[in-house]
Amino acid sequence: MHYVSIAIDGPAGAGKSTISKILSARLGYMYIDTGAMYRAAALYAIERGINIKTDRDKLLKVLGDIDIDLHYKGSVQKVLLCGEDVSQRIRENDVSIGSSDIAVIPEVRKMLVDIQRNLANNNNVIMDGRDIGTHVLPNADLKLFLTASVDDRAERRYKEMLEKGMKADFKEIRASILYRDKNDSERKTSPLKQADDALLVDTTGNTLEQSVEKIYGIIMKNIKAEE
To answer: What is the model's pTM?
Structure first.
């Protein structure tokens, strides 16, 4: 049986996760938020006082103890770290920065990519991240690269955090996004870039609904038409 895989890549705050969640629920596919996995790994280090940038050896020693799982309650994804629901904590700014730092470590990437590929081999999936189309799922049935202006992405993240009752500072969020863009694009292992066969989708100025409908149309044209 052939399972369909849709790879959605793009920079921080482009709307990948939110759009992918909505589309996966509509299509009946499994949604895999790879960014949440890196965030959870970063949180594991943060909670144990491990400096991700300077204490790599210490981090690698505990790598095998990091247990990350994705659970679903209806269409809502819950991220479990060693059995604890950390879905909201991993969205805070310190973890956002930490996730970009931990993503440059090859051993961490290999551990998480193995999990991600196994899920795609056994389910119809929409998987979003930074290097899904270029590295994790190079043979995905459809590849999309979502982007938007820095200010647009920062504004979306700012509003999202406020709606969740979290503390948010626009300037801090914008600086974090710029940091992550640079870090993700310049890392040696699987840097953020558009796959040669990915379709570029710029969501600057779009409402969430407009972006969802635009991408849904692309999926129906490129995936459903083939079934």
So the answer is: 0.81
